[in-house]
Amino acid sequence: MQRNLIVTKDGSHTVTIPEWKVFYHSVHGAVQESLHVYIEAGLNHWWNLHENASNCVVFEMGFGTGLNALLTALEAKRRQGKVFYETVEAFPLEIALVEKLNYCDALEDPFLQPVFDSLHTSEWNSVQLITPFFSFKKVKASLADYIPNEPIDVIFYDAFAPAAQPELWTQPVFEKLFTMLAPGGILVTYCSKGDVRRAMLATGFKVEKVPGPVGKREMLRGIKSASRIT
To answer: Which of 11, 37, 105, 141 is most enclosed, with most CB atoms within 10 A?
Structure first.
């Protein structure tokens, strides 16, 4: 499939697939969207709820450009908190396209380039220690074939929009995600469609509507009840 690079409104890149009419990140700003949805409303929200936790296990649906993983590594370094990050990707980006992505320049942090390079060049299906605070494993598989090795604390649900991949936004999918979460775990997604919210509620999530990133009024955060034992 053809994949093109475009510059979003905050100056950072996203990738588009014209055939599917989808974008990997918001055209209103790739970095600002990822920071808002996955770091602030996801990872940092979990840390705030579990202040005594020594580590956090994150699962991302769709590795894509690697932006969410990169920002998580940066946040783990800032917090000095350990994160184990696992992600699945059935259709990885070509390295030639990855090399053009400008996230490290946009974030103006020299720490990031070797981290970003390692995320994309690391061996598949193998745990890699990327930084002292960030361990990483990418699995070349679909969500349907993925089985986690341990309970997940935070899920970044970053699948393509329901119009492009409706099969990834159904109640059975959210039932699987719910079972993957540890008690007290959370799932965040940019999507705020009513049928997605209802599917999450039917699964057992406590669902919150959260203010969305620039260009989007709302997003969803699902919480699995009960406190995590740390």
So the answer is: 37
How far apart CA 84 and CA 87 sit, in angstroms, is 10
* Structure-token match 């409303």, residue found: 41
Burial of 98 (0-12, 13-18, 19+ CB in 10 A): middle
E-strand stretches of the chain = 4-7, 13-17, 22-23, 55-61, 82-88, 128-131, 134-139, 152-157, 181-189, 206-211, 218-223
DSSP per position, 66-123? SHHHHHHHHHHHHHT-EEEEEEE-SSPPPHHHHTT--HHHHHT-TTHHHHHHHHHHSP
* 8 A C-beta contact, residue 26 and residue 8: yes
Q: What is the pLDDT of residues 90-114, one digit of tens each?
A: 999 999 999 999 999 999 988 899 9
Dihedral (CA of 151, 75, 50, 218) sign: negative
Q: How many CB atoms lie within 10 A of CB 103?
A: 20
Q: What angle do CA 31, 72, 216 make, to 5 degrees?
A: 35
Q: How far is 176 from 88, CA to CA, in rounded Å?
A: 14
Q: C-alpha 153: how far from its chain's center?
A: 12
**Assessment of whether the complete model's pTM goes beyond 0.90:** yes
- Entry field: residues in the chain: 230
Taking phi first (over 0 means left), then psi (-120 to 50 degrees means alpha), and beta for anything else, what does residue 184 get?
left
